[in-house]
Amino acid sequence: MKTHKIVFLLALSFFLFSCENELEINPTDNLPGELAITSETNVAAILIGVYDEAGQIASYGGRLQMLSDLLGTDTEVNWTGTFVQPREAFTKSFLIDNTWVRDVWGNAFETINQANLVIDNIDIVTSSAEEKARIEGEAKFLRALAYFDLVRNFGAPYIAGGSNSQLAVPLRLNGLVDFSVNLDAARDTVEEVYTQVISDAQEAYALLPESNSFFADRYAAQALLARVYFQQENYAAARDAANDVLLNSGHSLAPTFDDVFNKEGDGPEDIFSFQVTSQTGANNLVNHYASEADGGRGGDIVINDDYLALFDDPENDERASYVYTNPANEKQLTNKYRQQFANIFVFRIAEMHLIRLESNFREGTSVGLDPLTEINALRSRSGASALAGPLTNDLIFNERQLELGFEGFLIHDIKRTQRSVGTIPFDADVLVYPIPQTEMDTNPLMVQNPGYGE
Amino acid sequence: MRKKMNWLLLLCLVGLTWTQAQEKTITGAITDQNAVPLPGVNILVKESTRGTQSDFDGNYTINANQGDILVFSYLGQRTVERTVTEANIINVQMEEDASQLEEVVVVGYGTTSKRTLTGNVAKLTSSDIAEVPNPNLQNSLVAKAAGVQVTQTNGKVEGGINIRVRGAASVSGGTQPLYVLDGIPLVDPVGNNVDVGNGAATNPLLTLTTNEIESIDILKDASSAAIYGARGANGVVVITTKRGKQGKAKFSFNMAQGFSQPTNRREWLNAEEYVELFTEAAINGLGEVDGRAEAESTFDFLAGDTDWRTGEVDTDWQDFVFQDGFQTDVDFSVSGADEKTSYFFSGAYNNTTGIIRSNELERANARTNITHQFSNKFKIGINLGFSRTEIDRIANDNQFATPLQAIAQSPLSPALLPDGTPNPSTLYGNFLFDDQNANFKTIIRRITGKVSGEYKLTPSLKVNSDFAYDLYDQTEDNYRGQNALFQSTNGQAFASDLGSESLVYSNYLTFDKLFGEKHNLNIVAGSELTKNSRRITTVTSQQFPGDDLPTVSGGAEVTAGTGVQIKNAFFSYFARATYSFDNKYLFNASVRRDGSSRFGENVRFGVFPAFSAGWILSEENFLQDSKTLSFLKLRASWGELGNAEIGDFASRFLFTAVSYNQRPGLAPFQPGNPDLTWETTRQTDLGLEFGFFDGKITGEFDYYVKDTEDLLFQVPLALSSGAPFLGAAGNAIVNRNIGTLRGSGIEIVLNTQNIATEKFTWSTSLNISQNDNELKSLPNGNADIVSGQNINRVGESVASFFLREYAGVDPDNGDALYYLNTQNSDGTLNRNTTTDPNEAQRVIAGNPFPQWYGGLTNTILFNNIDFSFTLQGEWGASIFNNGGRFQSVNGDFYDNQSRDQLNRWQQPGDITDVPQARLFGSNGSAQSTRFLADSDFIRLRNLTLGYSIPNEAVEKMGFSKLRVYFTGINLLTFTDYPFEDPESRSDVNGTNNPGQTFYSAPPAKTFTIGINVNF
Question: Given this model, what pLDDT does residue A19 score?
């Protein structure tokens, strides 16, 4: 009978005993938001998170570059893969529900919001003035970078000397943690977004240290400024910014063209790269450009002979033969992306040379170096014979394709120089990304780009 | 207390002494309607506590007085009352209760009889679910219960199962019912966890076997499910395992061997047709010269070393995708009971080779259920089941490595090279590389046990204390060898370990008493604590010296790892009172107060009440004598239920750890909402139960309305807000309780005993269900919520398809057309067409869930032959083929095309739905209703033909039963559905994108031969 009583007592005690404190369970794998923005360590960690965000495959991890080249290509490359999203870029027929476009948009704004959180809470950083400046500078650099790619992809082309009142993207400059507030936002103009980008990049340049390991330093900000001014056809400013990077950043051309690519760490030529290792980061360029053996899908983007025909000295120019044939399927692929854990560079010295020489050429100056000398110096690194001159805009445009092909420049160079993609003029609606359907569905203030319905 | 009991004891003693004087001993034999002795019959002296049971030979002995009434009762038999007269022998022949209304129904924390039930519960017993040759228990429920739709996601052996009880009551929350095994609420330990698995759901009940199941009771209405409070809104599936029945030990042995094939194979272009279509497409797309050159160079590439011009190779890739499936089932059980102890031991083995290459499952189960009555007051029982399930999995539907995606390959490409290795030069990665060089093995070990004590405090009051423990341990080992598809890191190994522990501690008091003959009162009250904790670790390594060391330690570099710990707890009080007057008027009320760690701290507790009432009209004087109408009951119920399936920390604003170049970082992970709480579903049910001609025709008719408030919504946020991406379909979302949903429907059940003679019986059971749902309000001022191809819009069904409307082909030029569907100024839709998909507005185009579904089962017994079959049907749903834009787009790209694409437009005047073939032309390839199809079907779900060897012959061999049978499932399907199978859907989409198929495997058609032996 004893056991019966024990059972009875146990049961009775259970009725009386309150188990409600059992319901207080806190997550152990995630950090409650209230605690996240309370210490300098955490603010610095959120900044690291911004790099991780921006480096994802949705944007700088590779898709942004591929979309730019596929949208800009006529017959230089072929999209032969199964993914329809890049194929829509290749055929210049974006649908508004293209998920790559959606993710470029979403990822950029995630990056921007996280950078905003760092900037908003910068006063928590008190250990030293240098540390505070570094953190704020990096956040502003990353915000500027994200906005620059948003404005040039989602807004109609910047027209030098124009009012640039065409719509770009909403400027959201305050970090959000409470998403229950009204999140509607209208598009600001191309001019306004460019102004913000330049302001952020200039502040970053002022705040950042001379060198900063693999994180952004002041020359990363200056290289961004050079690229932004260049896109605006503000050649004098672009030239001076590029000149500053070339003279003072400590970076220089890698000894050979091949040294630039497929490296695990940053090389001498890299001004700023997104870091990829076997454990963190992602290199989606390899996924779509490389053979199966190199970690790709077998070569979704095939290099056509039309691209190789752009080389004026194919015999000697190392870049002209920087392709290989995938033995599995006979596709001709670029050598640039064959290491799946290679860093993804955003700014490299060769681009600065190309910006400086073209800006000098267009401005009729020779800041730093005479344009013809500079282009030949760059060419000689790859073994290409020197150009006799005189230089022309076409020659320089061509040289950019030879050097920077498949690195995400093509469509932007076409828009800047007001050329066309085949027969499609640079300012055609189809060369601007659509505002993603999900944004249209959730943000009533959003207006679709021309040519995408409504 | 003690004093009171002593008084009671004294009273009893007085009673005993008084009665002893006129008592005599009655004996007798009890038989069933076929004059077979019936052991285990309960015999009670009415209005006393005296009782006994019949022995193995059906004989009994009891002491009673002249004038006493003896009550003979036995499950499934009509209760018999006999008055003791002068005779000392009372023999009773019992009759089967054809109306089955005395059926016992398992409700939460107790049982009740079907007759007096005031809620709606669908009951299936072991005979309904046995012999369905499929390792997934729930497949045996298909088409058997009204209002319960059961669909296995697709034809993979371990595939997830969707059970929708009376349609979904939720949009973003879980829609699966709560499973309760022997009183233990089961958790799905794997769920949507992204750290483990391959991105496709598995069946949470995969570890159970049908041979250990006695009954499955599906609690559908609020009154029956409300005792499960915050977890009952999607219905409750109560699974009860077998226990020993009175009588000597019964040995049972069953064995079955089956063979399976896919229900459907689609038709694809053969090599000749492929060359024809793509040559034409390339010429149309790129011009005569360029096009022909493009096509021929591609054919050269696809054909490799073979000559496509001579038709040397014509690969049917489906031959490599599908294989003959095999299934072996063996089970054995021993059960029995004496007056004090009942026991059930069983073991079962299942080995299933799926219909898809490399997909296999092997499972072993064992179970012991024992109860022992220590005294007439105290009883202890233990239920213990353990199992081991080993699955060879294949990739989810969205991977090139999954076999089904091979249907996109060109028929010009050989699948294998002459040396037997996979052909590397295919259009897409050849899955055979994975087939030969990779494996994904999942092993699940599960132990579920419960110890329960029951103590009778007084004859009418007992206390139950149950302690249950559920241990689920799942390991996964995935090795991708150096030659696996897309493998470029010299091999990769992944290992995971998921351990989940649940404990349930419940205590409850039950008071059950008949007052003054007519007033029957039953009260249950108690509390329950449920805790679940999960711990998941994973690790990945790369760079292997060779494929001979396929574990994580073989890799030179460890590249990823996770360690996850998740917990949740529920603490609840519950109570239920049932009162019946004169067996005619029935009342039931219940309440549960639930608290859960899952909800925001502002709203942690909820109270869920329910009421119901029933009136058995046939007991009334004015109907009692009716010859036609043998039973008639009206019932009504109302109650509130909750849905707590939103994940463990869904209310929290969270950051997560990230890393960048091995430096630690933090990133926002989930927007918070401290007001997040359960969904509340109010359900009203009106029911009518009837029986005609002495139960020869019985049936039920139900009408219900379910209103869900505080709908849990993953509300999409503007991506430009920078809110973190979370959940399905690439939206940034926040969890909110906004919106209301109304579901309503009817259920009809009709059972008829068509012929019942000694040698020939034929019975029919029909169930039909109809369900509609309509969103009544939505967040952000009733703004549409669009997620991929689905929309939630006020006035429409949940997750309706929202697509551009395909308008066919322009007969003049072969262009694909879409309806504009823009709003005209007068509010009508502009039905002009456009060739630009971006101009075409999306419209509501269908419902992913059926409006009508049902089942029809016929059972025929003729001499020793038994024959039964079940037809299953579903109407009103559509399925969107998300692979359509690759498979059926008139040669837009080199994917092999479905054969219907040969019907393409070729010259002006051609009337067809298939546009002109244009390689890279995007002619009709935009997501539209072109790829949406009705999925109505009728299917011969199962058919069984058995033969029992006559008793005389069997007994000579020492058996009590020997039966051989044939069973088939999915033998015939009648449908116009053009894709894989109307019951096959993609296993990669989340709850927001139902009703899609994407290279999804059809279910298996299985033929089985088996044998049952009892001795």
Answer: 64
CA nearest to B896, candidates B430, B321, B410, B415: B410
pLDDT the model gives residue B10: 40
Question: Chain A residues with CB inside 8 Å of B453's CB?
Answer: 7
Mean pLDDT of B9-25: 49
CA distances, B908 to each of B721, B809, B914 (Å):
50, 11, 13
Q: Which two tokens stand for residue B942?
A: 């199962």
Of A14, A170, A296, the CB nearest to B507: A14
Confidence (pLDDT) at A14: 55
- Residue that is last in its domain, among B67, B93, B119: B93
Task: With beta carbons under 8 A apart, name residues in chain B contacting A280.
Answer: 659-662
Task: Tell me which residue in B569, B664, B725 faces A45 most closely, judged by beta carbons.
Answer: B664
Determine contact, residues B540/B560, Cβ cutoff 8 Å. Answer: yes
Number of separate helices (H) and strands (E) present in chain A: 17, 9
Residue A62's nearest CA partner among A274, A375, A378, A376 is: A274
Please determine, for residue A155, whether its predicted confidence score (pLDDT) is greater than 80.
yes
| Owning domain of residue B66 | 23-93
Chain B neighbors of A329, CB-CB under 8 A:
301, 424-425
Domain count, chain B: 2
Nearest residue of chain B to residue A10 (CA atoms) = B465
pLDDT in tens, A208-219: 999 999 999 999
Name the residue facing A179 among B463, B671, B720 (closest C-beta). Answer: B671
B780: domain CATH number is 2.40.170.20
Residue in A closest to B791 by C-alpha? A441
Query: Mean pLDDT throughout B242-259?
Result: 89
In chain A, which among 98-127 make CB contacts under 8 A with chain B? Answer: 99, 102-103, 105-106, 109-114, 116-117
Return the higher-pLDDT residue of B549 and B702. B702
Mean pLDDT of B460-487: 91
Structure tokens at B426: 């295919």
Q: Which two tokens stand for residue B541?
A: 């390594």
CA distance A350 to chain B (A): 25
Nearest beta carbon to residue B649 from set A30, A280, A451: A30
DSSP lists the bridge partners of residue B239 as B181, B216
DSSP letter (8 states) at residue B824? P
In angstroms, what separates the C-alpha of B221 from chain A's closest C-alpha? 28
Q: A363 to chain B, minimum CA–CA distance in Å?
A: 38
Residue B372 located in a structural domain = yes
* Domain presence at residue B331: yes
| Tens digit of each residue's pLDDT (9 = 90 or more) over B631-681 | 999 999 999 998 887 777 888 888 988 999 989 999 988 888 888 888 889
CA distance to partner chain A, nearest, from residue B38 (Å): 34
Q: Which of B747, B763, B951, B660 is nearest to A279 (CA)?
A: B660
Beta strands in A129-184 (DSSP E): none
- Residue B422: both structure tokens together: 């996979």
Q: Topology of A39-175+188-442 in CATH?
A: 1.25.40
Residue A17 at interface with chain B, using a CB cutoff of 8 Å = no
Inside any domain, residue B221? no
Chain A nearest CA to B464, separation (Å): 8
Residue of A nearest to B596 (CA): A23
B1 has pLDDT over 50: no
**Which of A307-316, B42-51, B173-182 is predicted least confidently?**
B42-51
B410: alpha, beta or left? (left if phi > 0; alpha if psi -120 to 50): beta
CB B315 within 8 A of CB B274: no
CATH number at residue B87: 2.60.40.1120
CB contact under 8 A, B465 and A277: no
Is position B148 within any domain? no
**What is the predicted pLDDT for the residue at B18?**
40
Mutate to test the interface with B, among A18, A29, A34 (most CBs of B within 10 A): A29
